[in-house]
Amino acid sequence: MVTVPRQRVGDVLLRLEGVSLSFGGVRALSQVSFQVREREICAIIGPNGAGKSSLLNIINGVYHPSSGTVSFAGVVRRAMRPQQAAASGIARTFQNIALFKGMSVLDNIMTGRNLKMHSPLLWQALYWGPAEREEIAHRRKVEEIIDFLQIEHIRKTPVGRLPYGLQKRVELARALAAEPRLLLLDEPMAGMNVEEKQDMCRFILDVNDELGVTVVLIEHDMAVVMDIADRVVVLDYGRKIADGAPDEVRRNPEVIAAYLGVATEADRRAVQGEGG
Amino acid sequence: MQFFFEVLIGGLLAGVMYSLVALGFVLIFKASGVFNFAQGAMVLFAALTFVSLEERGLPRWAALAATLLVMLLLAVAIERIVLRPLVNQPPISLFMATIGLTFCIEGMAQGVWGSVVKGLDLGIPDTPFEVKGVLISQFDLVAALTAGLLVAGLALFFQVTRTGRALRAVADDHQAALSVGIPLRHIWGVVWAVAGAVALVAGLLWGARLGVQFALSVIALKALPVMFLGGLTSIAGAIVGGLIVGASEKLAEVYIGPALGGGIENWFPYVLVLLFLLVRPEGLFGEKRIDRV
Amino acid sequence: MIYREAGQFRTSYRADQRIFPIVQDRAVVAGTLLVAFGVIPLFAPEYLITALLIQWLILSLATLGLNILTGYAGQFSLGTGGFMAVGAFAAYAFQLRAPSIPLLGAFALAGLCAAAVGVVFGLPSLRIRGLYLAVATLASQFFIEWLLTRVGWFTNYSASGVISAQKMVIAGVPIDTPVRRYLLVLSIVAVLALAAKNLVRSRTGRAWMAVRDMDVAAGVIGIPLLGTKLSAFAVSSFYCGVAGALWAFAFLGTVEPQAFDLDRSFLVLTMVIIGGAGSVLGSFLGAAFIVIFPIFLNQILRGLFGDALRPGLLPNIELFVFGSLIIFFLIVEPHGLARLWQIAKEKLRLWPFPH
User: Can you list the domains of chain A with their CATH numbers?
Assistant: First the structure.
């Protein structure tokens, strides 16, 4: 398929240099370096256990790298707490949906606005004046996101009762509620059928296009990656083995061997022939 | 100096008695993931049943056997009526169910056997004997030995036997254990029965020491800091925790107590364990919980 | 048919976020308040007021406090009695040593004292989670009990340890009749219940529930864990403290640590379970159940057995049935009476159709 070069991509927003991560004796990541530009959609792919989730966890401060640096929006940091990452404009979704099962969809998304709400306890207890105004103002913002992701019909439903696909969408909404600059998505389409995946792809593209959010996503479905990613980073056993446009990466023999797989010799020649 | 050792040893031995009660808790938690708050009530119930049966003329061994049977029946009843419907509910629900169970067992124990304080004579002389000028209570020593044997036996059982392994699997994940074919219900019945037997031993020893009365179930509350100190899933932890709590409680009461007006043994073990947990939240030998998101 | 929402459209977020967005609900609440403030003081028998209503209202307040901590914020606590005791003794101390402070002020300050103590004993919650936290709250319970008994300053050096609460006076009006005490308690509880409902539907409440449901995720999306947990401890202890002060001043008439022992903590926890954790209404329902239940049971047993019961058997039967009820509720409806109420309302919405 033909990719139209997108002019909207800006300067480097996120830069990882020489990032390594070890747990006890296990090396999760070795010397991973890459960068993501503003308004890019960057996909991270690789076999299971390659360190993809760990990479995401490092970007938003849940893990601290044993060596190397991460810089976001020009600020270099070695160790950062997740709350700081959230405050500086990084939001994320999780592989095993981390929604608050006891609350409704609306309330879940409103928790994403928590950092932006400041009215003191006493005013909240009165639910009057500044507290009420703040509550309504943020409700308005949240409703925009609900509109955007087309989940109006379930806004009062307790999240625990929703089907998996909708829960994923609510999690995306919660991440968007923080108005992030960088959105980290950990397997946003896992467990979805074709229709749901199409919807989610459309939403991600819209988020990137209309809201100008930079997206880094971990994904296993190669069709999705080819379709929506501007750049692809491939990890294997904690090392980066490829980094570039989707078409390049798809033909990279190391990537094919490690992850995409080749059935026969003829296939490999066919793939190489296409590129050569 | 001699006095110090007396207090210390007295505390250690009392600690072993706490361990015995804590052991029942740990057993059930280790094997079913349930924090059985009713353990103390079970201690009371066992002791009361034994003493009341003896009072009604049953010879000692018959009373013991009968009480053991009763505890077994109780375990089966608990498994059927309380645990089975609550399979795979969050642990907090199970814990609250055991609070309800506590009330039930206490009400049953005192309702059936009455709430008059009864004496219990196990035939163990309480005359103290001397070791290098330090007085040690013979009774305490026997209690400690009994507890020690029981603990060693149970620890071995868990590690070595197939049933023990199954029990540990069940504690980890009910549903997973079920899907591997472990007969959950039988296992739980076994565990609660064993805990009931442990409660009986604890009840007899504590009953002989304090007299069989309602205060026995309050001893269980003392076993809580023991357990949290040792780690909820560790049998060794129950022992070590008991020793530490017992000793420190007595020593604190004797040496720090007078300065503060006395009576500090009520809260000292809790504060001690609290401070310890701040440093090591999973207890001495407990398993570290890793939360993945 | 009666409870239909059809035709009621909310046209602003403000209207949608009301506590009772449905007209019928608002009518019922208005009616209840009318009865509570207007009808009962005039027509209810004194026995009802003194033995039941005042007790129920104060215990509901304590249950609300514990519900905030355990039901909404998920921090397990067995220290309710201790925090109530702090409130009672603090109110006593303020009335004794600073009588110029008006009564309601003394109650508020007592609540703040309890809140401060709650925050101190809540600090471990950042490191210790789940059932292990029970140790911290047990420590607080036992330590507070000991402190208030041993340190003479609190009991004004009374020999027996039992002290009479001072007479209550507001703006020169003595609050000495049951009706007046009832109205005082009712007003305070109503105001605080409204405040609680407002809190749980605001940012703070959502933060509490997020911490309860998945605290790791909550931290990652930016919710400050320590601040949220401590605010739960503070608000919860404030409520329990005020409840304790009311218990001593408006119900018992004496200020004694025994009224706030571990049994009290368990009683309030039971009310939370039966009423429904995480529900303001549930707090009131649970407290009502526990207050009415012994009387109810008493009447039934007496009716069945007359005086044939061995003395001392009745309290044990009560205990047994009590425990069974807790287990029953946990099996059948773990979310308590509040959920049953919700289900009833939903059925009522569809009535007379089955679904």
Answer: 1-89+180-276 (3.40.50.300), 101-177 (no CATH)
The answer to whether C318 faces chain B, any CB pair under 8 Å, is yes
Report yes or no: C98 at the A interface, CB cutoff 8 Å: no
Tell me whether C222 touches chain A (CB under 8 Å): yes
Taking only residues 136 to 195 of chain B, the set having a beta carbon closer than 8 angstroms to any beta carbon of chain C reads none
Domain that holds residue C115: 45-350
Instruction: Look up the pTM and report it.
Output: 0.89
Residue at C345 is within a domain: yes
Please judge whether C13 and A178 are an interchain contact, meaning their C-beta atoms are less than 8 angstroms apart: no
Which DSSP letter does residue A158 get?
A: B
Whether the Cβ atoms of residue A184 and residue A176 lie closer than 8 Å to each other: no
ipTM of the complex: 0.85
Residue C4 forms part of a structural domain: no
The one-letter amino acid code at B23 reads: L
User: How many domains, in total, are found in chain C?
Assistant: 1
Contacts with A127 from chain C: Cβ below 8 Å: 198, 201-202
Structure tokens at A81: 């707490």
Give pLDDT tens digits along chain C (355 positions). Answer: 667 777 777 888 888 888 887 887 888 888 888 888 888 877 878 777 777 899 999 999 999 999 999 999 988 899 999 999 999 999 999 988 888 888 999 999 999 999 999 999 999 888 888 778 888 898 999 999 988 888 878 877 777 767 888 888 888 888 888 888 899 999 999 999 999 999 999 999 999 999 999 888 898 888 999 899 999 999 999 999 999 999 999 999 888 888 999 889 989 999 998 999 989 999 999 999 999 988 888 888 777 776 666 667 778 888 898 899 889 988 988 888 999 998 888 888 877 877 7
Q: CA of A41, closest CA in chain C: separation in Å?
A: 21
Asked, for residue C38, whether it belongs to a domain, the answer is no
Task: Give the number of C-alpha atoms closer than 13 A to the C-alpha of residue C69, restricted to the C-beta side.
Answer: 33
Please judge whether C206 and A103 are an interchain contact, meaning their C-beta atoms are less than 8 angstroms apart.
yes
Residue C75 counted as domain residue: yes
Q: Which residue of C has its CA nearest to B38?
A: C323
Q: Are A167 and A188 in contact (CB under 8 A)?
A: no
Question: Would you tell me which residues 4-23 of chain C have a C-beta closer than 8 angstroms to some C-beta of chain A?
Answer: 13-14, 17
Taking the CA of residue A5 and the nearest CA in chain C, the distance in Å comes to: 33
Calculate how close chain A gets to C233, using CA atoms only, in Å.
Answer: 13
> Which CATH number belongs to the domain containing residue C228 in this structure?
1.10.3470
Decide if C213 touches A, using CB distance below 8 A. Answer: yes
